[in-house]
């Protein structure tokens, strides 16, 4: 067999079911081998879309999503999605073709050193320089991508190596057991928690990656400690749980910030600093911190834990629950939760058009079940989805908040629907982000995957407008125009809707969600009321 055929057998051994990508001259041998494999190849319209699909696939399944491109511009087009997976800690393996080894040492058509280019964007990446190395390289890439903290890996397969004769077999794919927590560390953590008067839990995406949501809830209930989640940990505790303080992660002051101001101990669980830097919630660097995660704490002046429990997060929470002895007062957390919920209701009944984001997201929440999926793009609407849209189960609201790359929602929704075909999927996106990967509507129509793209249309880059107004009192360089989004959807073979009355949105959502094809809903949006309460006055914390 050829090296390309062995490569595909290795992918099969790693459990790969689908590859998102584009064909190219330098990956012809690999595509030929895939044509005889049970692995499904999904042809996309832009390599960035392929990488975003692999990114979301990895986040939803815990197994590395795979994307494929050719050399040069094909490979560099993957970069944004690869970077997103790496900083969002989603397992991904990117495969790129390359020129033959006989010309990689000199100036050559379409040749750039992609291994060097991808080094800062990946956990690990390598060039296959001989056929005998294929099995080891493929296995190492998948093992590394899926290990905590997961991220992106890259394999480059030059066209001449792909056609070489190869011997050998795939290496066995086995997942190593995550380590158990150190017992002295557990006892020290329990003692710190018992001593605290006003502890608070900051739950990060590692709780969801580690399938530790039940253990987190059980621990919070035993100790009566409230839980705030990062954007990417929405659903780690149900939004309607009495101990949930919902999401934290805005760089502006919000009511949930009051809980961190009052806290004398922060218990971080599966927390990724890349989402929400510690200086936002510990500006003086004086908070006591208990760190519970798969890996050691990242060095940060505002993040100096007094105790670190480095182990499998689920087991750590389960064992720690047996070590703590104190149940804390629920009075202040209950008052704080009520203040948060009351603030989030502002604008939810507003019938104006352009619509208030709170009204749009309330109607969307009512249209979907607790287990249906929302994929948020990046922009002003992302902050509002994080604040206003309740999540009740893990991995039902996906937000990119590490790399925070615009354009992820539409291709991400395709991957989400392929992974969870039994669930309804909605991509919530701004008009800026929607046009960045709108070409993948053709991919969705061709695949026959049905989901809704809910487009917040404000004719500009709304998040930058908000920040400019807060900082300078004026705006510059953020306005743009749009095509007719309904006609654009129809041109791709999808179905388009336009909201002209606020009271029509609920009906349109119900109709769109029932369609057997992709749909686009154009919603004129009004961000003038800002993102948080502090846009219009000082937040007064509950006492």
Would you kindly provide a brief summary of this structure?
The protein is of the alpha/beta class. Helices cover 37% and strands 16% of the residues. It folds into 3 domains: 160 residues, Thiamin diphosphate (ThDP)-binding fold, Pyr/PP domains (Rossmann fold, 3-Layer(aba) Sandwich), CATH 3.40.50; 156 residues, Rossmann fold; 188 residues, Rossmann fold (3-Layer(aba) Sandwich), CATH 3.40.50.970.
Describe this protein's structure.
It is a single chain. Helices cover 37% and strands 16% of the residues. The protein has 543 residues and is of the alpha/beta class. It folds into 3 domains: 160 residues, Thiamin diphosphate (ThDP)-binding fold, Pyr/PP domains (Rossmann fold, 3-Layer(aba) Sandwich); 156 residues, 3-Layer(aba) Sandwich (Rossmann fold); 188 residues, Rossmann fold, CATH 3.40.50. It has a 6-stranded parallel sheet with strand order 2-1-3-4-6-5. Helix 1 crosses helix 2, helix 1 packs parallel to helix 7 and helix 16 crosses helix 17. The longest helix is centred in the N-terminal third of the chain and has 15 residues. It is globular. The termini are far apart. The mean pLDDT is 96.
